[in-house]
Write a structure and sequence with these properties.
The structure is a homohexamer of 62-residue chains. Chain A has 62 residues and is an alpha+beta fold. Chain A has a domain of 43 residues: Macrophage Migration Inhibitory Factor (2-Layer Sandwich), CATH 3.30.429. Chain A is 31% helix and 31% strand. In chain A, the strands form 2 sheets. In chain A, strands 1-2 form a two-stranded parallel sheet. In chain A, a hairpin with a 2-residue loop joins strand 3 and strand 4. Strand 1 of chain B pairs antiparallel with strand 1 of chain C. Chains A, B, C, D, E, F: Belongs to the 4-oxalocrotonate tautomerase family.
Chain lengths: 62, 62, 62, 62, 62, 62
């Protein structure tokens, strides 16, 4: 505890994911006053055909 | 807000997914009285080996 | 299958929730070509202090 | 109802997943006093680059 | 890892929840060959007005 | 997009939650190179009887 889930578009390089989990862990640990080791993060990558806003698939939005 | 997640078996064509998000967005927007643009939908596709009912994997159910 | 989760602000009356699940079930069943009885829906109601856009809690947005 | 989601590292063989859902269904059905057929399980497999503890990706932890 | 989420109807006594997490942890640890301490479980309790099958709220099903 | 879910123990004051969403939004926006307004965060607060590690409820761990 805490456990973080991040839903994001697929396609970012691993280095970006590594920085993302590092920065989000720091933000969570600092504000909730827990040790970084207590913070777990799950990344859910999404295909542009699996996300929609306003009834239109992300892949079909200009 | 609102954010909808739909867990479904993999394998449907993109056209079906496009109609799905369109119809679900309309249903949510109409009943919750929000604008369609406020509705976000995430589709989680599942492999038949990653879903089970009654202790049996979907892939193994006749 | 399919299983739908809807994250929404708290406070709507039960009648609205009843219409929501009815309409969303119809939309999912019709487009994915499954029986309505196969569709399960979970509603996650949120306190305005538990949702944020752009780094600001919903409760604090004008 | 109940609906179980299991987030786990990718790579286990199907036989292990079959035993997993069988055993978890039994544990849930027995303790919650419901029929096994009422228990649904979704497996979310994760790439080691999509899980982090303490700000470090699982793939990068020794 | 692994992380388990269990969506269940509200109202069970704490003793039942304690046995549930104990049994599910054993099932997961044994079949996935991980230590019990590695298994985390989140229980999501639901109000009968927040779950639906076939377009009808659980609370309204006879 | 992106959408973040944070599962955390209940009981923190609103000010802590406000700082949490502000800092996590900054971390996500900076590393994924998106605008803060694109980042949505859902907080899931948990009762100590609804989280377990190693088969023991958080409430029962010394």
């Amino acid at each position: 505890m805490p456990i973080v889930e991040i839903h994001m578009m697929e396609g970012r390089p691993v280095e970006v994911k590594a920085r993302l989990v590092e920065e989000v862990t720091r933000a969570v640990a600092d504000t909730l006053n827990v040790k970084p080791e207590q913070v777990r993060i799950i990344l859910h990558e999404m295909d542009p055909h699996h996300y929609a806003i306003g009834g239109t698939l992300w892949a079909d939005r200009g």
